[in-house]
Every structure is written in structure tokens, then in C-alpha cells.
Specification:
Elements (H helix, E strand, L loop, with lengths): L4 E5 L4 E4 L5 E9 L10 E5 L5 H6 L4 E4 L2 E8 L5 E5 L3 E7 L4 H12 L4 E8 L4 E5 L5 E5 L2 E9 L8 H26 L20
Parallel strand pairs: 4-11, 5-12
Antiparallel strand pairs: 1-9, 2-3, 3-8, 5-6, 7-8, 9-12, 10-11
Length: about 210
């Protein structure tokens, strides 16, 4: 079973009204090539191709309020929501229903009380890459993910990073194990001086 993660983006939401009086909420669930804030020991960015497969092949993606499936606004399977990819990121449009949640979402977004979006995802096998920048800080790049739901949120402060943190801890344990093995080999005089240390890899990022 793939572990799900949640991220929140502080981006402006837009409510559009059609001639027939129907209203559509428009926002971005994720943006590309933009570093997140510190997520508890690492920062994260999303590759522009990370959502290609899931948006093309996923039969149903939900649009919810506060990433709560009990507060459904629309879904792609029903044609009441559209999810697409552009140069900025993952864009969603949802036809607001005439329900309490739909009316609340319209009012709160119009007033600016809803000013962010969240998305829930899991990482495909081999779909993320961990590196360190020139200052030794952990950087995680999402290269392929599966998208389950996205939509507006009341507070952009909530971030569920427990899965990613466990992944980072596993890498640290592997690095420590590799380092211990290297020390033993060096003591035995069997270490190859041309063998690179796997924990010294660095990548340079522009600020």
C-alpha cells in the first residue's frame, strides 16, 4: 500500500461566474520548480513532468475542501472538475455545487478567506530523488507522483511530511551504514582510494 502525503500551497483562488449564473473555482494545487519552505529537515520541489502520467491516466481525481473527502466539490470522473498541467503547475477548475460546502467555498474564496490549496499524493516507485545542496541541506525532488485529490484550504499551515521524513531517515541510516562499512574496510587496508563516498554527493542550486 502506497503511503499518502499532503502538501499545501499558498496561491490565490479565483471564482468565475458564467452567463447562466453557474460558478467555477479555479486554483493551483501544485507549482513546479519552486522550493518549499523547510519541511522539517528538508526542502522540496516538483519536477514539471511529475504529474504527467497521473493526470493523463487517473480515472478519478477529487476536488475537496480542506482535503476532506466528505466535503466534496467535484470530481473528474463526473466531469464536474477538470485537472490540467501548464507551465506553472497543476491547475484545477471545479464547478461549484449548490450545496453548503459549494456555497461556503464560493463565499470564502471571494472574500479571500480561502487563499491556498492542498493536494494529496503518493510517490511512485523510484519517483523521488534525495540530494544535498552546496550548504549540505537536504533537497527532495518529486519526479513522479500519483495524485488523489486537491482543492482549497482554510489554512495553508498544515503539512503532512511524515512519509517523506521517514524516507529521509532511511537514507541517513543507509549512509551511516555505508560509512561504517567504509571505515572497517579502511582499517583492514582494503579500501579502494578511488571509490567515491556515497554520502558526499552534492548538487548546486541557484538561489
Amino acid at each position: 500500500m502506497k503511503m499518502k502525503e499532503t502538501r499545501v500551497l499558498s496561491e490565490t483562488l479565483e471564482v468565475r461566474e458564467a452567463e447562466d449564473g453557474s460558478r467555477t473555482l479555479v486554483g493551483y494545487g501544485a507549482v513546479f520548480n519552486s522550493f518549499s519552505q523547510d519541511l522539517g529537515g528538508f526542502r522540496e520541489k516538483i519536477d514539471p513532468k511529475a504529474f504527467n502520467r497521473t493526470v493523463q491516466n487517473q480515472k478519478d481525481i477529487l476536488v475537496t475542501v480542506n482535503h476532506n473527502v466528505d466535503r466534496l466539490l467535484g470530481r473528474t470522473a463526473a466531469g464536474t472538475a477538470r485537472v490540467s498541467i501548464d507551465d506553472v503547475g497543476v491547475r484545477y477548475e471545479v464547478d461549484l455545487p449548490d450545496t453548503a460546502d459549494g456555497r461556503d467555498a464560493e463565499t470564502l474564496a471571494s472574500r479571500g478567506d480561502l487563499f491556498g490549496s492542498s493536494f494529496t499524493f503518493s510517490v511512485a516507485k523510484g519517483g523521488d530523488k534525495w540530494e544535498k545542496d552546496e550548504e549540505g541541506r537536504r533537497i527532495r525532488t518529486l519526479n513522479e507522483v500519483r495524485l488523489y485529490e486537491l482543492g482549497p484550504v482554510v489554512s495553508p499551515a498544515y503539512l503532512d511530511t511524515s512519509v517523506a521524513l521517514r524516507s529521509m531517515e532511511d537514507l541517513d541510516e543507509e549512509a551511516d551504514a555505508d560509512g561504517s562499512a567504509g571505515e572497517e574496510s579502511e582499517e583492514d587496508g582494503a579500501r579502494d582510494e578511488h571509490t567515491p563516498n556515497p554520502d558526499t554527493a552534492r548538487i548546486r542550486f541557484r538561489r
